[in-house]
Write a structure and sequence with these properties.
121 residues, alpha+beta, Ribosomal Protein S5, domain 2, six-stranded mixed sheet, 24% helix, 36% strand
């Protein structure tokens, strides 16, 4: 079979954006869904940044993840958990000030969006 005989499959990239206010702070989310993998960026208002990036893979452990860029316990933890939940490779960049009040609400909002729009993830 030559190159001209192969059936081409269209590449699809779906981007889903949403935002919310948590403790008077604007929190923005961007989900980029590709074939077999998803990238999730979470950040605060102002200038977008990607200070951390972690990759998670589905496996036996819910913490099958590693940091690719910067530092960030939340990025790594979330990448591992979501990879197991979504059963695919997940990249996470979590760029919100990590505190005991804000972080649970940021994650809760992400989970709510996943339940409401599973096809976006």
């Amino acid at each position: 079979m030559g190159l001209t005989d192969q059936v081409s499959t269209p590449c699809t990239v779906l981007v889903h954006n949403f935002s919310c206010q948590i403790s008077e702070r604007p929190i923005h989310y961007q989900v980029t869904k590709l074939a077999g993998q998803t990238m999730i960026w979470v950040g605060e208002g102002g200038v977008p940044s990607m200070a951390s990036l972690a990759a998670g893979v589905p496996g036996i452990s819910s913490l099958a993840s590693t940091m690719l860029l910067g530092k960030g316990d939340q990025s790594c933890m979330l990448a591992g958990r979501l990879a197991k939940k979504l059963n695919k490779q997940v990249f996470v960049s979590y760029n919100v000030g990590d505190d005991m009040l804000t972080t649970p609400q940021v994650l809760e909002r992400l989970m709510k969006e996943m339940k409401q729009f599973p096809d976006k993830f």
